[in-house]
Every structure is written in C-alpha cells, then in structure tokens.
Amino acid sequence: MNQYVLSGMICKTPKFSQSPAGIPHCIFVLEHKSMQIEADLNRNSYVRLQVVASGRSFQDQTQHLYVGQAIQVRGFLNRHESRSGLSQLVLHAQHIERIN
What DSSP letter does each residue of 6-18 carry, written as one string? Predict the structure, then answer.
C-alpha cells in the first residue's frame, strides 16, 4: 500500500457533506510550496491538490480546519472524474496533522 505525505496551507474553505450511505466527508484544497533539488539544481515546487477526508473518525478533526492553516496530510491518491468528464487527482486523507 502506497501512502503519500503532503504539507501545506489550506487555501479554500472546507466543505462538508454526507453520502447517501451516511458517511461524512470534508473536502478542501491544500497548497504546497517548497524548494526541491533536481539534477543538483534548486527547483520550486508548487501544487494545489484537493483533499477528501471521509468517515466519522475525521469529523472532530475537520470541524476546526480553516483557510491559512498549516497541516500535513498522509493518504492515498485517486483520480476523480467531474460530471463534465475532466479528470482530477485527489488525495484521500488517512491522517491529518496540524503544523505549528
């Protein structure tokens, strides 16, 4: 099982919903900026990635998320397709940690 870790700032207000099966979801966008080394050169890394946190175990954690908050998310990547047929890469959270 592959897990990915991404840290950054929440840049869009978290949205809360519930599936027809009663599973709570929190969806937000995480903005990551860093300097990475590639081919012995500095490279700016920048990405905005949608994060989905599903299940009752995330309800308490996600209630207090806000724009500008620094967090680290661990989870798996999945492709979501919009109604218009556009593909989007999404990080499904399995652990969320606040960063001070």
Answer: EEEEEEEEEEEEE
| Calpha distance 76→92 (Å, rounded) | 5
pLDDT-derived band at 100 (thresholds 50, 70, 90) equals: confident
- Cβ neighbours of residue 48 closer than 8 Å, sequence gap 6 or more: 11, 29, 30, 31, 32
Give the pairing type, strands 4-18 and 41-54. unpaired
Q: What is the pTM of this model?
A: 0.89
- Largest Cα separation within the chain, whole Å, is 50
Residue among 7, 6, 14, 20 at smallest CA distance from 58: 14
Angle at 78 between CA 65 and CA 63, to 5 degrees: 15
Residue 36 predicted with pLDDT over 90: yes
